[in-house]
Amino acid sequence: MTELLKKNITAHISLSDPEIGTFCNLFQHQIIKKKSFLLREGEVCKFEAFVVKGLFRVYHIDQNGFEQILYFAIENWWITDIDSFTNETPSQLFIEALEDSEILLIAKKEKEYAYANLPQIEKLFRIMTQKTHVALQRRMIDNLSKTADQRYIEFSTKYPQLIQRLSNIQIAAYLGITNVFLSNIRKKIALRK
């Protein structure tokens, strides 16, 4: 169960086997059924989660009722509402399982314990936070400077494993376009081949 988490940790930092064991023991295993919510708008996010199996979407619903997908999370990825988790404020996000999934959750109290007793863990989360900032910055720049066609091609190239697991509606919501527009993009690409 924790083998994937251990690999994720050791890809970023060095810990002894006892330290890795101590850290992994701070997590709670949960099984989340497809279409179940890990977090709903208005709730305070009390966890950071590591995806062992499955697929999640993290999204916001705008004032017009449209979904704005911030990101998807698959195996070996982390999910949370960092604003709500850090500031203990009501979330503006939904986190929903798109497949039957398994996750490992760490609560704020356990994370603080890890920071105090396993100093390398702060480095782990700093590295992950930096990588998240880079990804979000790149996504913002892409959304401002690239066409929908370019964004779709880059998304499908960068995340081929997601293309097979997501619906057109979900991909369109991530790209900030309509399902019809996405279908037209796919037709244009197919005609070029």
From TrEMBL:
Transmembrane annotation, as ranges: none
Record CDD domains: CAP_ED
InterPro entries to which the protein is assigned, alphabetical: cNMP-bd_dom, cNMP-bd_dom_sf, RmlC-like_jellyroll
Top-rank lineage group of the source organism: Bacteria
Coiled coil start-end: none
Residues of the Cyclic nucleotide-binding domain: 32-110
Protein name as annotated: CRP-like cAMP-binding protein
